[in-house]
């Protein structure tokens, strides 16, 4: 955090550093931010954990972290590639119950194409499958773990998205539900909005934290976009 970017809940947002400021673009996480895929993710990872013999101590996926990073901490090196492929296969086979989160589609659709992107830790095939299953319109700019050498919490995914949009990362806002994604956004130089869901509001270290995206509106200016916070 910078001194001017103190973590703020919706209760103390008046005059906030993020609100009313003009930004070049908005970079959205997908799972837990735009769509709720938590149950499908957990089913797939628990099935893989059973197949991999991880035992009862394994409680499922860590949200917001690329699969490779999670798998590498759990299985021997000679099992990593099999595990990555198997997890992806299981996740692609289980898309049941994935839904759009409140306010997400409206917020994304309010943005011009050149000022919006999805930045996700999952594979491109899985990202597109989940968006299609939920009925979420796919923006032109989508950055996945297939596109960068390192995923969240490293800054490369958000830097790549900003570069594709021709935007200065320091004039971008990252919208995330997970600590790893918020850390990546800060490391990229972006301001951050945390959205409660997979984590509680007090677990999210962000410039602004909201209970859901339906609390936010975006207005379009000639030189960028501006966030507004709706009253409860």
Automatic annotation (TrEMBL):
Pfam families: Hydrolase
Top-level taxon of the source organism: Bacteria
Family annotation (InterPro entries): HAD-like_sf, HAD-like_SPP, HAD-SF_hydro_IA, HAD_sf, PGP-like_dom2
Keywords for this protein: Hydrolase
Keyword Hydrolase applies: yes
Coiled coil regions in record: none
Recorded GO MF terms: hydrolase activity
Keyword Protein biosynthesis in annotation: no
Entries under PANTHER family matching the protein: FRUCTOSE-1-PHOSPHATE PHOSPHATASE, GLYCEROL-1-PHOSPHATE PHOSPHOHYDROLASE 1-RELATED
Protein name: HAD family hydrolase
